[in-house]
Design brief:
A: about 250 residues; alpha/beta; Rossmann fold; 7 strands; about 15% strand; globular; B: alpha/beta; about 45% helix
């Protein structure tokens, strides 16, 4: 038996760039059909083009418009059938000093990084939308849920909120055979990180990262592999937790 | 208004060795009105007899502070059993033996507070300091367990997980003085290097009645290094 054989499974991947794109391709390679959600048509088209087999779809979704999410989820289930898993890769790596972090900014970050996640899980966990034999949810959290960094109050708070919500949802949804976990990537080579981190080779920033993240910069595939594990039955007794995939950063 | 950290009339046993941190702790506790009874013994077989004698001479204690800290930089291939045993002895076993003897000889008053000096090495990986990291993690685990066991006597037990402290430089805990002088330690800890007096303040805080319901926990004092 292959633990990550996802033949016949239907996964929703929100966020079709960076880690989301890599995850969609990996899961698709393991046999799953992928339903992509993103606000960017470019991300949707590029990633959809890279997928093979039947049943892969792309839907436009504005994650800052929480009230509009249920309509999209209903449409997805009506057009495709029951859902076996959901991976929330959407997120903005917002960087802003505290003195400029006003409520409207904080709310925008929370909407996209956190409230959209809870709303999608809420919609999917209704009867007739998820596979009653089991659904697995994985959120992309961040080490920021545990550590702190200057100008990242909104981002870290949104990821801390995600981890706390996952502990609660895991307990509440356990009787429906739904497991809920997160992964916390270290610095990962994605468009988001390239915009907010300095890790060009031999730069001071790169040396600072390596001092803690001593295995090096994560690649998106490293995060996708951990997600595949959490979606598979190999992890069927793991729920409500956060798996750091961080090259050693959190513990050093 | 009364000072919540007032330690007037409290007799505190200080199990350590002569170091900058010990001096700072003794001085701060004195300042706050406590009398400090120093105790030094690294031979674990002599702790029972020596400590019993001390308790006989000095009476029962309101607090017990354990400050022994023995770190070593050594790559794995040189970490022989004798070294591991020595590091465990100094950082952990002596604390457990001290607690056992104090308990057995009823030398800790009901309501006493115990503070063990640990390190952020207990919760973070440090290269070539494996034995020390393990020993302080063992110390923190012992603190949690003893806190439950002695709670019915209202005895509180906590630890302080310290980061880089200025007094460590003199002790040779930090061998790489050059890189420290380059400001690496300051960069790693956003608030900079902790002063021995600041560790002493946290010790006083945990010994005081202001923390009557804090037990079994560890306070990190590291200038933000672990963030």
């Amino acid at each position: 038996m292959n633990g990550t054989d996802f033949t016949g499974k239907r996964f929703i991947v929100s966020g079709a760039g960076g880690i989301g794109a890599e995850t969609a391709k990996l899961l698709n390679g393991f046999g799953a059909s992928i339903i992509l959600l993103d606000i960017s048509e470019d991300n949707l088209n590029n990633t959809l083009d890279a997928l093979s087999g039947e049943g892969n779809k792309a839907y436009n979704c504005d994650f800052s418009d929480i009230d509009g999410i249920e309509t999209v989820i209903k449409q997805i289930v009506a057009e495709n059938g029951l859902i076996d898993g959901f991976i929330h890769c959407v997120g903005i790596g917002a960087v802003r000093p505290l003195k400029m972090s006003k409520y409207d900014f904080m709310l925008k970050v929370m909407n996209i990084n956190f409230f959209s996640f809870v709303e999608i899980v809420r919609c999917l966990s209704a009867k007739g939308r998820y596979n009653p034999e089991g659904m697995n949810v994985v959120g992309i959290s961040a080490l920021g849920a545990y550590l702190g960094n200057t100008t990242k109050t909104a981002y870290c708070a949104s990821k801390g909120a995600m981890n706390a919500a996952v502990r609660c949802m895991a307990k509440e949804l356990a009787h429906k055979n739904i497991r809920v976990n997160t992964v916390a990537p270290g610095v990962t080579d994605t468009p988001m990180a390239r915009a907010t981190e300095d890790y060009g080779s031999y730069s001071d920033g790169y040396k600072m990262i390596l001092a803690r993240q001593y295995l090096g910069i994560c690649q998106p595939i490293d995060i996708a592999n951990a997600i595949a594990f959490l979606l598979s039955d190999m992890s069927k007794m793991i729920t409500g937790t956060c798996l750091p995939v961080d090259g050693g950063k959190l513990t050093s | 208004m009364t000072n919540p950290l007032n330690l007037t009339g409290k007799k505190i046993l200080l199990f350590g060795e002569s170091s900058g941190i010990d001096e700072a702790i003794a001085s701060q506790l004195n300042e706050l009105g406590a009398s400090v009874v120093p105790f030094e013994q690294k031979d674990i077989n002599l702790v029972e007899s020596d400590l019993k004698q001390l308790a006989k001479d000095k009476g029962t204690f309101d607090g017990f502070v354990f400050t022994l800290m023995h770190s070593d930089f050594r790559p794995l291939q040189f970490v022989k059993p004798e070294l591991v045993a020595e590091i465990l002895n100094d950082n952990y076993l002596l604390f457990v033996e001290g607690m056992r003897v104090l308990r057995k000889s009823k030398a800790l008053k009901n309501g006493a507070s115990v503070v063990a000096l640990s390190s952020i090495s207990s919760i973070r990986a440090m290269k070539a300091k494996m034995a020390f990291c393990s020993a302080k993690a063992a110390l923190d685990a012992a603190v949690r367990c003893l806190a439950i066991e002695l709670a019915d006597k209202s005895i509180r037990i906590n630890s302080i997980q310290k980061g880089v402290v200025d007094a460590d430089f003199a002790k040779g805990h930090i061998k790489d003085v050059v890189s420290i002088n380059d400001g690496a330690a300051e960069k790693a800890a956003p608030l900079g290097v902790t002063k021995a007096e600041e560790v002493a303040n946290t010790v006083a805080f945990l010994l005081s009645d202001a923390t009557r319901t804090i037990t079994g926990t560890s306070i990190v004092i590291d200038g933000g290094y672990t963030l």
